[in-house]
Fold:
Amino acid sequence: MTARVEVDLDAFARNLHHIRTTVAPAQHLLVVKDDAYGHGLPAIVRRAADEGVAWFGTFDVATAVAVRQTVGAGCRILAWTVYNDADIEAAQDADIELGIGDAPLLSDVASRARERGACARVHLKIDTGLHRNGFRPEDWAAAVAGARDAAAAGALRIEGVWSHIAEASDAEDDTARTAFIDAAGAFDGPVLRHLAASAASFARPEFRFDLVRIGAFAYGIRPEGGPSDADLGIEPIATLTAEVIELRGGEARVDAGSLDGLDSRLAGRLLVGTPGGPRRLEAVAATSARVAAWPGAHVGDRVDLIGRGAPSTATDVAELLGTIGEEVVLRFSPRLARRYR
Ligand SMILES: *Cc1c(COP(=O)(O)O)cnc(C)c1O
Structure:
């Protein structure tokens, strides 16, 4: 099998530096959920730490613990989904900070910490309209009071207040931001405030607060229908690539198909990168695809299908398919090797 995902870690580093200078003085928390958006967690986390990224964010505690094992003690890690008591304990043991958005979980985390003589580090999440987890505004005062009681007893430290926004309409985001500022006003002491992901972090400085949680732009994935990579100053870092395995009837058969992450609906609609220049993707089968051949084509020639170096980025492909760039990259099959340059 020659299909693979190549990841250019130097391009990744350039994206990280561009993010850092764009959002400063806010800090960048690098989101590494979903195996670092399919790019492979360990290599991404290691390089990010080398480049000075000091914050990582994951959905689940297991991934957060894996990040801790990879980078050691020198960074902060936030996980925002907690499934059970084992997660709570693992987070306390590995110094993982937890994003908490409901009262039963908050009290579980505090009581677990008390029983174990530990101190849980939490970021309280206010629901600012997305209704994806988070304390409702009417419950916020009670949540803050509960967390303060636990903090006074030494079982908890309130590290941050945060929310997540849709980044789909400026008007909705503005409403969310107002609710967020309201909620953060409940704290007089120093808590980190974080609200924005990639799009708002770049487009709307007033959304940056102390920390921004950015995944997509770090991997060079622009928003669909939005500004270009060049306008944003980011570059794609991953390429779905494979070799020619057969030449027949004016077509080259390439060693990657729909099971590898090349959507069959792209047949007839996508240009791919070949040694002879861009060529049309003619058909996609489960494990191979056919591409219009070029003069001097050989078995073993490299064909760049999607991403860095190919005619179409993940988001270009997403725009053809009516989805988002993240999904195109996440469909690059986990069974494909990730190669780093
Ligand atoms: C995925 C995610 C992000 C990052 O979003 P991008 O658009 O990829 O930058 C930020 N915050 C939360 C809570 C997320 O789940």
About this structure: The chain is about 35% helix and 25% strand. Residues 31, 33, 80, 164, 197-198, 213-216 surround pyridoxal-5'-phosphate (CB under 6 Å).
